[in-house]
Amino acid sequence: MALTGPARPRDAASLVVVRGAGQSLRVLMGRRAPRHRFMPDVWVFPGGGVEHGDHHRPLLRPLRRAVARPLEQRWSPARVRALAIAAVRETWEETGLAVGDVRGGQFLPDLAPLRYLGRAITPAQSEIRYHARFFVTDAGAARGRLRGNGELMDLSWLPIAMARRLPIIDVTEEVLDRVARVHGERRRSRSFFIHYRLGERCIDDE
């Protein structure tokens, strides 16, 4: 039998949509449907894998240079653009909230309101692996009415303390902690990188 190595992580992106501030801060999350092979019944932020069309989709506005520049030191501008589009597109599909505009049935993402939080790579022993990037934006940048498409159930605006008590993974815990610390700050904060070494989680600043 031929030996195979770990599955190659697939590019993915999530969007953390927040509203309010201080004790009123809420994050938009939903529960993955039980039918999913990857993390069924776990609470997550809207997001998913990068699709081919994300590399060519027209935009309203690109990422701000202050956001894009550090990412483009690690990945190509085209890849960074596709990742940000995937985060916004998946959010629109899964929640009905459009960070952008819908014209003639076509969704045009607006990447200008996004900030970058960090990334995480699924452990090597997982059968399904993702290299997920996390962006954040304020709910004021989104249009539309909250509604699901079956990918995420029980869509809710949750206080961070309540979200921590739900069935979530360690990566989500770290994202919630970062959002609680940096939301509303004007200065640029360091992004995080979560990876696993010998089964142990490692968190680095980038």
Helix-strand blueprint:
Blueprint lengths: L9 E10 L6 E7 L10 E2 L2 E3 L15 H8 L4 H19 L4 E4 L2 E4 L5 E7 L8 E9 L13 E8 H5 L5 H13 L9 E6 L2 E6 L1
Parallel strand pairs: 1-8, 7-10
Antiparallel strand pairs: 1-2, 1-4, 2-3, 2-9, 5-6, 7-8, 10-11
What are the main properties of this structure?
206 residues; Nucleoside Triphosphate Pyrophosphohydrolase; 9-stranded mixed beta sheet; 32% strand; globular
Report the order of strands and helices. EEEEHHEEEEEHHEE
Q: Which oligomeric form is depicted?
A: single chain
In the CATH hierarchy, what is the architecture at level 2? Alpha-Beta Complex
CATH superfamily: Nucleoside Triphosphate Pyrophosphohydrolase
Strand content: 25-35%
Count every beta strand, where a strand is a DSSP E run of 2 or more residues.
Answer: 11
Mean pLDDT: 90
Helix content: 10-25%
Instruction: Please mark out the parts with pLDDT under 50 across 5 or more consecutive residues, or reply none.
Output: none
Structural class: alpha+beta
Distance between the termini: 40 Å
Report Rg: 16 Å
How many helices? The count is 4
CATH topology, anyone? Nucleoside Triphosphate Pyrophosphohydrolase
Q: Major beta sheet, specifics?
A: 9 strands, mixed
Write up this protein.
The protein is α+β, with helices and mostly antiparallel strands and 206 residues long. The protein has one domain: Nucleoside Triphosphate Pyrophosphohydrolase (Alpha-Beta Complex), CATH 3.90.79.10. It has helices at residues 65-72, 77-95, 160-164, 170-182, and strands at residues 10-19, 26-32, 43-44, 47-49, 100-103, 106-109, 115-121, 130-138, 152-159, 192-197, 200-205. The strands form two sheets. Strands 1, 2, 3, 4, 7, 8, 9, 10 and 11 form a nine-stranded mixed beta sheet that branches. A two-stranded antiparallel sheet has the order 5-6.
